[in-house]
Amino acid sequence: MNPFANTLAQLKKAAELVKLNPNIYEIFKTPQRILQFSIPVKMDDGKWKVFEGYRVQYNNARGPFKGGIRYHPQADLNEVKALAALMTWKCAVANIPLGGGKGGIKVDPEQLSNGELERLTRGYTRAVKDFIGPEKDIPAPDVNTNAVIMGWIVDEYSELVGYPVPGVVTGKPLSLGGSLGREAATGQGGFHILQELSRKLKRDPKKTTVVIQGLGNVGYHFAEAAFKGGYKIIAVADSKGSIYDKRHKGMNPKNIIQTKQKRGLMDGCYCVGAACDCEHYKRVTTKQLLELPCDILVPAALEEQITGANAGRIKAKVVLELANGPVTHEADEKLNKKGILVVPDILANSGGVTVSYFEWLQNLQNSYWSEQEVNQKLAGVMSKAFHDVWQQKEKYHTDLRTAAYAVALNRVAEAMQAKGIS
Ligand code: NAD
């Protein structure tokens, strides 16, 4: 099943459960707008290359479209459509007044120089300029895009319209109107959800083991918060390798990153000279890492990591989806049957878009908040979202993903009904 078919399967399941108005269900099955375009870029050697770009605007019933831009060699329209749909439901679960969108470019950014990457980003901005803007559609970073890239988009867009428009994207540098707390927001938000869940399940963090796949923006900040919160991180992975702490003493992600930066690769020995000691770590593959016995498994890398093929071997008690779409629909059904609690992406990683919303608000008001204010507001939104979803889980006696969809579908449907769709 392709990623968009996966989201549609989940939509169908939740729509049936909440008895969604069939006309609204029909509208929810397709994006409002799909943009697909070519971006010609002059490379450093003087030759021109053409890259494929996408922006999908899924639904804006509750507010302007919102969603990141991904640079990845496997980015394609089905993936971007799925991610745009997820953004719609995610903003509704967090109860922020935004719709859902997503963008992407089929490119391996590691193969480009900085100048080529900048020209590609500016080309993308020119291609979508009539369709984005603070009142229309607000992009943000996603896999392989970051604050620097967002800065180029702000600059190009502002040049095109003739005045500064910081609110055209979120996740931008602080000097261009970024928000304090945005970088850590997705991981931090995931940590708030973990805390709420631990309280609900009466779990002691000190006796809770955590395995994390992906140590990028999301995975690293989550790991840092979980470590500070007393959870035992027993295994981590990035795209280059994974390590497992056989003694279950718990790893400090800061040490891992420091050694990784010094040594370059996560090659199974990245704790040399730091608090953790290489001897006690076992090198495992990403595949093995996902199947380790643990309390909480956190996929925080890419989608479709737990599929029908490996779901049967997952030994975690809880899967906390910090990546978007890391568990396929087929795998989800298998995990549910095994009694593994899956905390869905549209709840678990909604901290990122929540602080993006805060950033956009600050840009519109031209007034900026302290990091403490941002974090306090984030904690409030995450806690409310968790309890809203849990309530639907109990009401319908269903899994957490379907419960989160129930919250989202009802909220978006209410907005559509208020606009006259019946
Ligand atoms: P990132 O590029 O900063 O980090 C990705 C991490 O995953 C890196 O550590 C990379 O080495 C690792 N990785 C890649 N392939 C891997 C593999 N096969 N095995 C193990 N590790 C692998 O990206 P990010 O911003 O942290 O995003 C991660 C996920 O979270 C994506 O699914 C993204 O859509 C989702 N997400 C991100 C945000 C955000 O605010 N950045 C918000 C919501 C959801």
Automatic annotation (TrEMBL):
<protein>
    <recommendedName>
        <fullName>Glutamate dehydrogenase</fullName>
    </recommendedName>
</protein>
<dbReference type="InterPro" id="IPR033524">
    <property type="entry name" value="Glu/Leu/Phe/Val_DH_AS"/>
</dbReference>
<feature type="binding site">
    <location>
        <position position="217"/>
    </location>
    <ligand>
        <name>NAD(+)</name>
    </ligand>
</feature>
<keyword id="KW-0520">NAD</keyword>
<feature type="binding site">
    <location>
        <position position="186"/>
    </location>
    <ligand>
        <name>NAD(+)</name>
    </ligand>
</feature>
<dbReference type="InterPro" id="IPR036291">
    <property type="entry name" value="NAD(P)-bd_dom_sf"/>
</dbReference>
<dbReference type="GO" id="GO:0000166">
    <property type="term" value="F:nucleotide binding"/>
</dbReference>
<dbReference type="InterPro" id="IPR006096">
    <property type="entry name" value="Glu/Leu/Phe/Val/Trp_DH_C"/>
</dbReference>
<dbReference type="Pfam" id="PF02812">
    <property type="entry name" value="ELFV_dehydrog_N"/>
</dbReference>
<feature type="binding site">
    <location>
        <position position="356"/>
    </location>
    <ligand>
        <name>substrate</name>
    </ligand>
</feature>
<dbReference type="GO" id="GO:0006538">
    <property type="term" value="P:L-glutamate catabolic process"/>
</dbReference>
<keyword id="KW-0560">Oxidoreductase</keyword>
<feature type="active site" description="Proton donor">
    <location>
        <position position="102"/>
    </location>
</feature>
<dbReference type="InterPro" id="IPR014362">
    <property type="entry name" value="Glu_DH"/>
</dbReference>
<dbReference type="GO" id="GO:0004352">
    <property type="term" value="F:glutamate dehydrogenase (NAD+) activity"/>
</dbReference>
<dbReference type="InterPro" id="IPR033922">
    <property type="entry name" value="NAD_bind_Glu_DH"/>
</dbReference>
<feature type="binding site">
    <location>
        <position position="66"/>
    </location>
    <ligand>
        <name>substrate</name>
    </ligand>
</feature>
<keyword id="KW-0547">Nucleotide-binding</keyword>
<dbReference type="InterPro" id="IPR006095">
    <property type="entry name" value="Glu/Leu/Phe/Val/Trp_DH"/>
</dbReference>
<dbReference type="InterPro" id="IPR046346">
    <property type="entry name" value="Aminoacid_DH-like_N_sf"/>
</dbReference>
<feature type="binding site">
    <location>
        <position position="90"/>
    </location>
    <ligand>
        <name>substrate</name>
    </ligand>
</feature>
<dbReference type="Pfam" id="PF00208">
    <property type="entry name" value="ELFV_dehydrog"/>
</dbReference>
<dbReference type="InterPro" id="IPR006097">
    <property type="entry name" value="Glu/Leu/Phe/Val/Trp_DH_dimer"/>
</dbReference>
<comment type="similarity">
    <text>Belongs to the Glu/Leu/Phe/Val dehydrogenases family.</text>
</comment>
<feature type="site" description="Important for catalysis">
    <location>
        <position position="142"/>
    </location>
</feature>
<feature type="domain" description="Glutamate/phenylalanine/leucine/valine/L-tryptophan dehydrogenase C-terminal">
    <location>
        <begin position="179"/>
        <end position="420"/>
    </location>
</feature>
